[in-house]
Specification:
The chain has nine helices and eight strands. It is an alpha/beta fold. The protein has a domain of 152 residues: 3-Layer(aba) Sandwich (Rossmann fold), CATH 3.40.50.
């Protein structure tokens, strides 16, 4: 490349986000945007025997994970308490936040790295930080969400989840028992599950293929 800046900053950018979840705002007279959909590769990893046994042992649990983010102080205790108050079991994903169950209750399971596309369709709600990847996976699964944004685009995705009616956005700041209970209770409403499944049907699965094809055709 003779001009790297001109190669990167063009008037025809690509947007690797799903149009149903994160549409490009139109009209856009300054840019000719190609929205390909999210770039996803197949993931055939099975769930662990421990996770399978936990899922089969009762009603769908609530999942909570913050990926590579640090979680608000005491969030594991608050999440478990809110879920138990609503009669729900919990799967905690350790992630970089190091979430752990606080007791030996049979209604909690702590897991490590997991295939989200295999797990999310089998839980009652996905509670997460609002990262693009996790939000896309939960939306594609048709599972209600509770988004606790921490920074940057996570606030955008929290707003989109709320506007689409596929979950609830927790206010900025550290959740307490009352606020998290309210957000989770709202996300578990039957009409939210119906709406989440409806939006999931519109999520594109060919984003990576579309981008690859466009690259090949441009060469």
């Amino acid at each position: 490349m003779r001009d790297v800046r001109a190669h990167i900053f063009t008037a025809s950018p690509w947007l690797a986000a799903d149009p149903a979840l994160a549409p490009w705002p139109e009209p856009s007279p300054s840019f000719d945007v190609l929205q390909t959909g999210a770039w996803l590769l197949p993931d055939e990893r099975p769930l662990s025997p421990e996770a399978e046994a936990f899922l089969d042992a009762g009603e769908p649990p609530v999942y909570c994970g913050f990926g590579s983010m640090r979680a608000p102080d005491g969030v594991a205790r608050t999440v478990v308490g809110a879920a138990r108050a609503l009669g729900r079991r919990v799967i905690l994903s350790r992630g970089w936040a190091g979430l752990e169950a606080l007791d030996d209750g049979s209604d909690c399971l702590t897991i490590g790295e997991v295939n989200q596309r295999a797990l999310f369709p089998r839980v009652a709600a996905v509670m997460h930080h609002g990262g693009a990847g996790t939000t896309t996976a939960a939306t594609a699964a048709g599972t209600p969400q509770v988004v606790l944004p921490q920074m940057f685009d996570q606030f955008y995705f929290a707003d989109r989840v709320s506007r689409l009616g596929i979950g609830s956005a927790h206010p900025a700041g550290t959740p307490d028992a009352e606020s998290l209970h309210a957000a989770l209770n709202a996300a578990l409403a039957p009409e939210v599950a119906v709406r989440a499944r409806s939006v999931a049907a519109a999520v594109r699965t060919d984003g990576a293929r579309t981008a690859a094809r466009r690259l090949v055709e441009a060469v």
